[in-house]
Amino acid sequence: MAIKYKTIQKVQPGIAGGGSRKYYASIVIDGEISVDELVKEIEKFSALSEPDIRGVIIALENVIQSKLAESKIVRLDKLGSFYPTLSSEGKDEAKQITASSIKKAGINYRPGERIIDAINAAGFKKIE
After folding, report:
1. Of the four listed, 22, 30, 101, 128, which is most buried by Cβ atoms within 10 Å?
2. DSSP string of 55-120?
3. What is the pLDDT of residues 75-108, one digit of tens each?
4. Stretch (H or E) spanning 43
5. SS3 of 24, please?
6. 89: number of Cβ within 10 Å
7. In 3D, which of 15, 51, 47, 17 has the Cα closest to residue 35?
8. Which helix (H) or strand (E) holds 35?
9. How far apart, in whole angstroms, are the C-alpha atoms of residue 52 and residue 58?
10. pTM for this entry
């Protein structure tokens, strides 16, 4: 297995007319995997049945959503961590910051070391 990439040309950001153009490697997404496919893959490594695995995945989704909504970091050991984020308008005084100052909420993911190691060890394959 290797991570697929292609070459793309980009201009320099923030420079009128684009400045000098340079070539960069850009990842090529090769499809996606659904929960059904994940369940089939997990079955190969587990004694659990398909309904059990599906139930655990759905329960995990629900618990992660609930705990992120409680401002908690969700640590999944070697898989990594999910944590809530937000961005807000800047105000001159602290007392001016209210819930209406918040522009958007989001979620960040920080992969665990095994995930990072697996990506780094995968190798790369150039797609023309």
Report:
1. 101
2. HHHHHHHHHHHHHHHTT--EE-GGGEEEEEEEEE---SSGGG--GGGEEEEEEEEEE-HHHHHHHH
3. 999 999 999 999 999 999 999 999 999 999 999 9
4. helix 35-43
5. strand
6. 11
7. 51
8. helix 35-43
9. 10
10. 0.76
